């Protein structure tokens, strides 16, 4: 972590730290036990609470929910990336007529709650685009605007000499952006982009307000049927954590890998 | 608005405690804080709301709805506050920590007197983004029953179907104004207190 915040402990300090560590361990495990006892008292560990999760139909339903979540996330992210590249390029444009609208669009969609956007699209256009469309378009607009800022920052972080060398070679402005700046920007911003994907994946859960049958909605259907909120939330939560941890790990690994090259690039 | 203010306060307090646990020398505490942050950051807020708003009453914890919503928002936001503060602590010059130790300050003293004041001042910007995210997350509380701006949209539309656009842009403008207010305050604080390096 940050070992320079404290001295390498001597024997007395080490003993004190061990005592404090043991005390806090005791406290934490005490709190945990109390919580578990409380859950047990209220019958949260009873068999019928967990029974549904051995039922193949329910497992199938959860699988479908998982698939729906992944589908919405993937479609949303793919659209968002395309939108983000266009918006970032537009915001960096030298034409004021392109730059100002792009800035307005980015700032607008970044500032409003995603939930509001989903509701608006659903209530206004459900006949045309359906639940899936409303969710995906809302995700794309919101994450596209956020990612546009990420990519813009990435483009601005590319050393100036790169763009200057490209224009000295006679490339046109759109060629410079597409061939020289964007690839380097995307590469250096890959960890942030993946982190935004985690956010998008989490945000698909908001689709439950419009009854999109994703993981959370499936969970809702299960616990209204079996009255087992906490076990269901536990199972669904574990699934989300597994997916997102995998993505975050990928981001960290990318970050570690890209570190040495960003200096030279 | 009240939900936003209370959650922001609780989240900051809890986030600060978590960040201190995280950078401290006691393994158990820093491990706990790290796990907490990992778990909360990877769970959708909606799920946390389900657990706290519907789950807690099941095990006999009876709280008002407002308290439950504020708890969920605070627990969620605290993880992000913790990460921001930790990155702030990491940006403080190593020499500062070394100097603090050299003049004989203990860990708590050096953190309280030397490191944290500088760390907090360097993270006003990111902290403001966390609060803006919190502002937008108050919208999630709506669907769990709290009367709040987005909820008004819902009922407005039911009454006047033609007013959808007006309602949407009106409420969006409200959120944008509040968001601007938060970042304006952050910029003010930053200009006034920022550490110049």
Polypeptide structure, described:
The complex is a heterodimer of chains A (265) and B (197). Chain A is mainly alpha-helical and 265 residues long. Chain A has ten helices and no strands. In chain A, helix 3 crosses helix 8 (190-203) and helix 3 (56-91) packs antiparallel against helix 9. Chain A is flat. Chain A starts with 10 loop residues before the first helix and ends with a helix. Chain B starts with a helix and ends with a helix. Chain B is flat, with a radius of gyration of 20 Å. Chain B has nine helices and no strands. Chain B has a single domain, classed as MetI-like fold. Helices cover 83% and strands 0% of the residues of chain B. Chain B is mostly helical. Chains A and B meet through helix 1, helix 5, helix 8, helix 9 and helix 10 of A and helix 2, helix 3, helix 5, helix 6 and helix 7 of B.
Count of helical segments of chain B? 9
Most strands sheet of chain A? none
- Overall geometry of chain B comes to flat
SS class of chain B: mainly alpha
- Secondary-structure-based class of chain A equals mainly alpha
Low-pLDDT parts of chain B are none
What CATH architecture of chain B do you see? Orthogonal Bundle
What's the structural blueprint in terms of helices and strands?
The complex is a heterodimer of chains A (265) and B (197).
Chain A: H1 11-41, H2 47-50, H3 56-91, H4 96-111, H5 114-157, H6 160-168, H7 173-188, H8 190-203, H9 215-226, H10 229-264
Chain B: H1 2-23, H2 27-41, H3 45-58, H4 65-91, H5 94-102, H6 107-122, H7 124-143, H8 149-159, H9 164-193
Helix pairs in contact in B: 1-2, 1-4, 1-7, 2-4, 3-4, 4-6, 4-7, 5-6, 7-9, 8-9
Short summary:
By secondary structure, chain A is mainly alpha-helical. Chain A contains 10 helices and no strands. Chain A is flat and about 75 Å long.
Highlighted features:
heterodimer, A: 265 residues, mainly alpha, MetI-like fold, flat, B: 197 residues
């Amino acid at each position: 972590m940050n070992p320079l915040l404290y001295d390498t402990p001597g024997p007395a300090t080490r003993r004190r730290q061990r005592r404090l560590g043991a005390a806090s361990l005791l406290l934490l495990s005490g709190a945990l036990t109390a919580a578990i006892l409380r859950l047990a008292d209220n019958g949260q560990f009873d068999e019928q609470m967990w029974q549904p999760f051995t039922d193949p139909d329910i497992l199938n339903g959860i699988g479908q929910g998982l698939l729906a979540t992944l589908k919405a996330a993937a479609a949303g992210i793919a659209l968002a990336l395309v939108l983000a590249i266009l918006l970032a390029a537009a915001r960096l444009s030298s034409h004021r007529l392109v730059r100002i609208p792009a800035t307005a669009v980015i700032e607008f969609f970044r500032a409003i709650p995603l939930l509001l956007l989903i509701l608006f699209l659903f209530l206004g256009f459900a006949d045309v685009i359906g639940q899936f469309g409303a969710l995906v378009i809302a995700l794309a607009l919101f994450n596209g605007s956020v990612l546009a800022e990420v990519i813009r920052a990435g483009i601005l972080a590319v050393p100036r000499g790169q763009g200057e060398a490209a224009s000295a070679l006679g490339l046109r402005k759109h060629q410079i952006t597409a061939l020289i700046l964007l690839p380097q920007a995307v590469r250096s911003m890959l960890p942030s982009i993946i982190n935004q994907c985690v956010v998008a994946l989490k945000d698909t859960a908001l689709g439950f307000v419009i009854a999109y049958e994703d993981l959370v909605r499936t969970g809702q259907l299960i616990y209204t049927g079996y009255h087992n909120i906490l076990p269901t939330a536990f199972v669904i939560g574990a699934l989300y954590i597994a997916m997102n941890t995998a993505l975050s790990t990928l981001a960290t690994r990318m970050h570690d890998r890209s570190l040495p090259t960003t200096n030279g690039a | 608005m009240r939900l936003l203010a209370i959650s922001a306060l609780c989240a900051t307090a809890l986030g600060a405690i978590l960040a201190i646990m995280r950078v401290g020398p006691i393994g158990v505490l820093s491990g706990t804080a790290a796990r907490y942050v990992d778990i909360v950051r990877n769970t959708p807020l909606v799920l946390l709301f389900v657990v706290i708003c519907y789950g807690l009453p099941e095990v006999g914890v009876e709280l008002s709805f407002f308290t439950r919503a504020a708890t969920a928002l605070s627990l969620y936001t605290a993880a992000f506050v913790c990460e921001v503060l930790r990155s702030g602590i990491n940006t403080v010059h190593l020499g500062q920590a070394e100097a603090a130790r050299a003049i004989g300050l203990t860990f708590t003293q050096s953190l309280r007197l030397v490191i944290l004041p500088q760390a907090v001042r360097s993270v006003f910007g990111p902290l403001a983004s966390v609060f803006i995210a919190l502002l937008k997350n108050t919208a999630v509380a709506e669907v769990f029953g709290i009367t709040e701006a987005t909820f008004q949209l819902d009922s407005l539309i039911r009454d006047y179907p033609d007013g959808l656009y007006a309602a949407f842009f009106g409420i969006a403008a409200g959120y944008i104004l509040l968001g601007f207010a938060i970042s304006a305050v952050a910029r003010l604080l930053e200009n006034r207190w920022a550490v110049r390096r």
